[in-house]
């Protein structure tokens, strides 16, 4: 699995010929496109988006299982948290989550997270709240989203960690995650 970062909370996740895009900011080719908040792309930008998921529910497309959970986003708008089961891994994408208090039903449903995508910004979760929530969900790997240099540094301070090197892409297999607990992976914007 290859994960690349395209700014804000936009990621492309690919494995073989299958590509998922999370919260695209512009036209991107994908088999499956997920939006955690209201879509703002014009129709022509969605021409190559493939199957579009833009809200809570359960979906199965091309051996990818997606469950969406209602949550509170920026300015109390609706946000969807996605649990994506893909290539034997559970990816949890929090989108533009702004309230770190998740419902009990959501917390019970998003167990066994391999990779957690968590927003760290002034608009979404502040660094302290983001770090606390990330640790409580016990993922193998944490990938910050929507960060600035300042919020990322504060996020690391919360965990008492030194700065982590940024990667161009995160290439990972399920076996690579064995024994990892909350390892932070920072991706450079493409």
Report on the architecture of this protein:
- This protein is of the alpha/beta class and 190 residues long.
- The protein has a single domain, classed as Ribonuclease Z/Hydroxyacylglutathione hydrolase-like (Metallo-beta-lactamase, Chain A, 4-Layer Sandwich), CATH 3.60.15.
- The chain has three helices and 15 strands.
- It has helices spanning 104-109, 127-137, 149-158; strands at residues 2-5, 11-15, 18-22, 32-34, 51-53, 57-61, 64-72, 78-86, 89-93, 115-119, 141-145, 166-167, 169-171, 183-184, 186-187.
- Strands 6-7-8-9-10-11-14 form a seven-stranded mixed beta sheet, covered by helices on one side. Strands 5-4-3-2-1-13 form a six-stranded mixed beta sheet, with no helix packed on it.
- The mean pLDDT is 92.
Identify the CATH class.
Alpha Beta
**Helix content range:** 10-25%
- Please identify which CATH superfamily we are dealing with: Ribonuclease Z/Hydroxyacylglutathione hydrolase-like
Q: What is the terminal separation in angstroms? A: 17 Å
- Low-pLDDT parts are none
CATH architecture: 4-Layer Sandwich
**Count of the domains:** 1
What letter string, H or E per element, gives the SSE order?
EEEEEEEEEHEHEHEEEE
Q: What's the CATH topology name? A: Metallo-beta-lactamase, Chain A
